[in-house]
Amino acid sequence: MPDASQIAPSAELAHQMQGFVGRYTEKSFDWDAFPGSRGFPDLQRAQLRYVGAGGSPKTNDPTTLKAEHFTFSLVNQPVGKFAASHSHEIVEHFMILQGVLTVGWVWGDEVIEAKLGPKDMVLNSLGRPHGFRNDGIEPVLMQITVGSGTPLAPVHVCHPAQGKDIELSRTFGAASADKIHPFRADSSDHRHAHMAKHVMRYRDMTPEWNDAGFAIMNYVGGTGAPPQNYRMDLIHLPRGKEIQPYARDVEDVYFVIDGAITVGWEENGQTVEKRLGARDLIFNPAGRAHYFRNDGATDAQFTMVVGTPKAETVAFKAA
Q1: Residue 243 CB: number of other CB atoms within 10 A?
Q2: Other CB atoms closer than 10 Å to residue 68's CB: what's the count?
Q3: What is the DSSP string of 54-68?
Q4: May I ask the CATH class of domain 4-18+205-306?
Q5: Which uninterrupted H or E stretch holds 157?
Q6: Residue pLDDT, tens place only, 111-154
Q7: With contact defined as beta carbons under 8 Å apart, do 14 and 28 qualify?
Q8: Are 214 and 301 in contact (CB under 8 A)?
Q9: pTM to 2 decimals?
Q10: What is the pLDDT at residue 5?
Q11: What digits encode the pLDDT tens for the residues 275-311?
Q12: Identical fold between 4-18+205-306 and 31-202
């Protein structure tokens, strides 16, 4: 690894790298991302797109990176708003960054509801109808990934556009209080047990420290929720730690949650670097040699999303 002061950046490589960076402060939230919500103020929410369009049909957004095996976006949901129950042909996860989100999984006319806080996640399983609602006192900001670069439109289950009562839609189709059940991870009920495999609580996670000097927490894949098209880890990178360049045969994405990291790309002896702050993202294409380090003032945390459900094959090494 060359000393930072000795790096002679390639203009072409630097230009390429810049095209794969999404800066949170340079993006805008789209309050009309979901046409199904038009005309229904209770369904108001906004989307900020990094990779692909996610659950929005706005696939021609020029500020969005092209998706391959998954999409990556943020959603802001104001207090009191909800998303009506729906299902997808693929998996989709919600990772909470701010606030408390109520997620409901629908089983016939009954609903299991789980409350998720910061750094908690739910992986909504393929075909399982689900909705979400903000019952808290502050806006919810969450990161959403859909397990396809080009997902189909969601199939609505209980939506006011279908003539359903707005309050019935708010409870995801549960007609009375006795049809709504708070999620219990230790329940013997098969519905709770199934959901428990897909809910990851940050407070319950045990970091796995590796020889490269950083910790990994599996959210999707490994000891996390069962993977389908991709997997995701939360990386805790202590101040001063750095890893050697590596490459994959699929893409991976870094999204910074806390602190700041420096990411480098290498090609033909040339090295270029970008510094990423909170809610910045970089898409590292398949085959690209890249690395990361923490030369900031505090420890950093970032999610790493990898375009395969297969187990990790990279043997990370300290630089």
Answers
A1: 22
A2: 18
A3: TTSS-TT-TTSBPPS
A4: mainly beta
A5: strand 155-158
A6: 999 999 999 999 999 999 999 999 999 999 999 999 999 998 99
A7: no
A8: no
A9: 0.94
A10: 47
A11: 999 999 999 999 999 999 999 999 999 999 999 999 9
A12: yes
Contacts of 203 by beta carbon, 8 Å cutoff, 6+ apart: none
Amino acid at 42: D
Q: Which of 22, 23, 225 is nearest to 116 (CA)?
A: 225
Closest CA to 22 of 280, 231, 200, 278: 280
Give φ, ψ of 248 to 5 degrees: -125, 165
How confident is the model over 159-199, as pLDDT tens digits? 999 999 999 999 999 999 999 999 999 999 999 999 999 99
The encoded tokens of residue 263 equal 């990411």
Instruction: Enumerate the β-bridge partners of residue 281.
Output: 22, 255
Cα distance between residue 99 and residue 75, in whole Å:
12
- Where do we find the tokens 């990176």? 65
Cα 177 to Cα 113, 173, 180, 249, 257, distances in angstroms: 12, 11, 5, 49, 36
The pair of three-digit structure tokens given for residue 223, joined into one six-digit string = 């000891």
CATH of 31-202, picked from 1.10.287.130, 3.30.2000.30, 3.30.70.420, 2.60.120.10, is 2.60.120.10
Q: Copy the structure tokens of residue 86.
A: 């729906």
Long-range contacts of 41-44 (CB under 8 A, 24+ apart): 42/80, 42/81, 42/82, 42/160, 42/166, 42/169, 42/170, 43/81, 43/82, 43/83, 43/84, 43/160, 44/77, 44/78, 44/81
What residue ranges do the domains of the chain occupy?
4-18+205-306, 31-202
DSSP 172-198: TT--SGGGEEE--TT--SHHHHHHHTT
